[in-house]
Amino acid sequence: MEIEATAAREAAGAEAPSAVRPLEATPDRSVGASVTGLVAAGTLVLAWATILAVGFTRGVEGLGVVGAAVLVVLSVFVHTGLFITVHDALHGTVCPRWPRLNRLVGRVVARLYAGFSWGRLLERHIRHHRFPGTALDPDHHAPGSPGVVRWYVRFVGEYVTWGQLLWMAVAFNVLSHAVGVAEGRLLLFWVLPALLSTVQLFVFGTWLPHRTPEGGHDNAHHARSAAFPPWLSFVTCYHFGYHHEHHALPAVPWWRLPAARRRLAALQDTGG
Question: Of 94, 105, 92, which Cα lies nearest the Cα of 34?
Fold first, then answer.
């Protein structure tokens, strides 16, 4: 519980610049915000389960090559959404009004996504927000090694554990041998999308926003945002491309980031 209390203080707004603190210093604890967060999380979990069920029962044989490819793409997108849900739960923004339920959702979805340890995710995400772009940031590339492939490998290695791999191996074998899902279908519709989603998360949520621009970063978060319209921002990574806004206002859930972006831009235009 202590580390989760720390997350609420550190990862949910302690580093926001004073000029933007009044906007979203803490998560919106209204019933409406929590219900919206829970509906979004529930919709993603339901979509994830439906896609897996269709892929596992029909396979390429029943879907056709084009249908199977479309299902894989959808599965990657939904897997990414599961992790974004976990990320928001780390910030307490899935269900701010009921913190215990928020943590439960985060823990369950982290396991569903890829057997992740909630505690490990929490500890590392706190460090990412407290020490962005430094040697203490687990999401940052190794010193002197900004190459995208090496950065990705280091990024994934910070979060994967032997316990997680064991969890996934057990789940794979249960689905294969006890449930009877063909291994090819498990690999195509479950394992491959989960792996590809880590690439999507890395590219749009870490590499593009946190790579050092020519001349260096111009803010304490060492983050910049993609100049995407909202629809493209959603498609690429659930608005995670609005990354400077997320670091400036970490108490804002993913579905409110476009509005937060507009509000921050208005503040800058008026010199607020």
Answer: 94
